[in-house]
Amino acid sequence: MKKLFQVMLALVLAASMTACTSTPSNTPSETTGDQGISGTFEGTGSGKGGEIKVSVTLENSKITAIEVTKHNESDIISEAMDMLAEEMITKNSTNVDSISGATLTSAGFKVAVGDAIDQSGATLVENEVAAHQPTAVEETYDVVIIGAGGAGMAAAITAAENGASVAVVEKLKMAAGSTLLSGAEMAAPGNWLQEEGEDSPEQLIEDMLVGGGNIADVDLVTTLANNALDAAEWLRDDIQVEWEDELMHFGGHSITRSLVPVGATGEEVMMKLRTKAEELGVVFYYDTKAESILMEEGKAVGVSGANTEGNGDTLTLHANNGVILATGGFGSSVEMREKYNPAYGEGYKSTDSVGSTGDGIVMAEAVGANLVDMEYIQTYPYCDPISGGLLYIDDARLYGHSIIVNKEGKRFVSELDTRDVMSNAILEQTGQVCYELIDSTAWASDKIEENHGGEVEYMFAMNQLVKADTLQEAAEFFGIDAAALEETVNNYNSYVESGVDEEFGRGSLNGKIETAPYYIVVATPAVHHTMGGVQINTEAQVIDTEGNVIDNLYAAGEVTGGIHGTNRLGSCAIADIMVFGRIAGANAAANK
Questions:
Q1: What predicted TM-score, i.e. pTM, was given to this entire model?
Q2: Which CATH number describes the domain made up of 2-120?
Q3: pLDDT at 7 over 50
Q4: CATH classification code of 136-191+240-376+533-572+583-590
């Protein structure tokens, strides 16, 4: 039911933004009788990245080609459109299932193709497709990894670079995970953009422990902090990830230390990781849901699974050296959220991948793994009130260039406090929303339109973002108290001049809000990260309920618990998945 709701919501959103004013790109052939309509026709829809345009070729009312002529979706997510196009051509129908993990893109693409068909006037007759014949695949590798997100990719590449044969099982149709949906900023103390000696692993350890309520496993936090810079340099030098030349400052960090990938989204990191993995010969089994960890004499020896859509295909992969869990958290499972902390149930949307439903945690628990910190669930403060998606427009705040206010036009929390503090503060405001104010200087310098043009287009279309020549005009669009807002801005600008935030003690005051036009975006919290999961040690080995290592079973990333305590600091997730993904991959490869 939840999946159906997501698809229906995506279709409504896409349809609401679709401009069905397309015209044929050429005149269709005049045909009569059973010959049908031939020609090439254009159609328009809208995905998460904004407008999608397609060119559809018909021959006698049969779809022979579909070309995407315009889109702003990420390269990985845009692959969903190729998959849909292939199925539409095979079936001669637009009645195909959306691609999980790319719901909005799928919806927008289907609307665009449907628009083109409507422009043609053709009536499509669906082809009969031969019934699928189920297959049973059984193979053996050195290392088998469950999950093709950031942690799984880091583990796969490292294991392959250490001489292991590697297979990755992924229930979605593409490599993505929550890493792709994130900004992929990475905490790395002592990085190449910092002054020598201004930061250290010890400072990051202290920040993470305090930010997580001082309950995290100190050994795990220490391992993360001591290896974060090496992991960032590995991404830069081995994986060829490009980084921006400016750092971000996330709440709870005592210093500005977080690296930002080019484009300020997870696409740069995930595309480069996938390319490297494929170059190394890593084998991917997509559209396959792992169902159980195979055990023999207390050791993990493989993985069994089946086609995600239930077409009868089965998969059994034997692992000579080890199995690595990298399945992410459970932020997209309302059922699991309600089980472990009812406060985060149906009332919250989620920023996470649709694949983050706790599968790895359930499989690990079934073979005796211990679970820790399961009740700790984090929300991200600044998300789309309609879809729950993470808002990249919020980069301006992380660069220290914006403020947030309530309906009354007043600031109510430090914009750089920890995520739990900010989220709770927002939920206490009128309408349980906040409004982020950005001036045109920050808008340009932080590359908001350049990096996130599709999101900007989407938010404008949904009336969740306004651009105005005056503060008063911007405030009136959302019904914000304009006089109070102007007073708030004047006070804030005086704090920038003095270098001291007299109201909330914010540490990063990098520019006044004074240059028109002004932008205001509305936002609300959504579930973003689950801190609990499978217990591991510093070697990424899974620990059972008796405190013993489960032989040959490793875990990395959000599927694990104990690293972030009650609250994860921003940009520490990428450090986490890269550090422990690499440790898991290296140890599994060496486990002869």
A1: 0.84
A2: 3.90.1010
A3: no
A4: 3.50.50.60
